[in-house]
Write a structure and sequence with these properties.
Length: 306
């Protein structure tokens, strides 16, 4: 990757990591389901009028919108509102890599390698340590909600792979249109219209800023830039940069929210990040017979990425 592309990948990881701190601040201004609905409303408008028609079938837009937007982000916001710390949420959510591998095996028949299975086992051990930590210092229900959010993220990853959108930004903008009404309906039913109206009436610059950050910076810029990188480089080259998300997430939470990092959290972070790193490694496949010399590229294996 070019240095500018590396910097862009690190910037996206930083944006996604800081996002958890911004969500925590936003939850002081909005009920969680309303906040999530406003996030997708701001991400969809006015961008939906600028990106053109969806480039995949509507069934994929709706399926990913419900799984990623309603289920994943709804559960995440509710879990954080119930007491799950921002830094720990940024870490625990990375278990989505394990769920993605499991769902890909079940739905797509993708068999994980032994190294990937080892990485998944290490990551699950990290989740176990994090659960012990949260069980002694916070509500386990909130922890479970974030785990469920990670599972929904894994399912949405498999659906996105099936959809194979040629334009990541176009796809994400149209996906953002789907969760708005379901989340608003859930907010009215669960959180109540009086609480929603009170939050909207008390809207200030800080509340507005959190909505714009999670919508435009995290969703539109973050997913758009990530898709741009994936279009130009192998997924195995780009994906490891996502391991920086909990680093920025926990650092920003400690800096801006004064969240402490206990020894158990450091242990959970090391196990989870290390396990996801192992699970992300793609080993080269060895061919039984080599092709004739005249059919091989002059610099096999050294072809520059796009």
């Amino acid at each position: 990757m070019r240095p500018t592309h590396v910097l862009l990948a690190v910037l996206v990881a930083a944006v996604w990591g800081v996002n958890f701190t911004v969500i925590e601040i936003g939850l002081d201004h909005f009920p969680p389901l309303l906040f999530s609905a406003l996030r997708f409303l701001a991400a969809a408008l006015p961008a939906v009028f600028l990106v053109g028609r969806p480039k995949v079938a509507w069934k994929w837009v709706v399926a990913v919108g419900l799984t990623l937007g309603v289920a994943k982000f709804g559960l995440l916001f509710v879990g954080m509102d119930a007491g799950m710390p921002a830094g720990l949420s940024s870490l625990v959510l990375q278990i989505q890599a394990v769920f993605t591998a499991l769902f890909a095996f079940a739905a797509l028949g993708e068999r994980p390698s032994r190294l990937r299975l080892l990485g998944m086992a290490v990551a699950l051990a990290g989740i176990g340590v994090a659960a012990v930590e949260e069980g002694t210092s916070g509500p386990l229900t909130a922890f479970a909600l974030v785990i469920a959010a990670a599972a929904c993220w894994g399912a949405s990853n498999v659906l996105t792979r099936r959809a194979a959108p040629p334009d990541a930004l176009n796809f994400m903008v149209w996906v953002s249109t789907v969760p708005v009404l379901p989340l608003l309906a859930l907010s009215l039913a669960v959180e109540g219209p009086s609480r929603d109206l009170a939050a909207l009436r008390a809207l200030d610059w800080q509340g507005t800023g959190t909505v714009l950050y999670v919508a435009w910076v995290t969703t539109v810029f973050g997913f758009g830039a990530w898709g741009w990188l994936l279009h130009r480089h192998p997924a195995s080259t780009v994906a490891p940069f996502s391991l920086l998300v909990p680093v920025f997430g926990m650092s920003s939470a400690a800096l801006f929210l004064a969240e402490s990092m206990t020894p158990l959290r450091w242990c959970a972070a090391a196990l989870l990040v290390g396990g996801v790193a192992l699970a992300s490694i793609t080993l080269p496949r060895h061919r039984a017979t080599a092709p004739p010399p005249e059919s091989q590229p002059a610099a096999a294996g050294l072809t520059p990425s796009r």
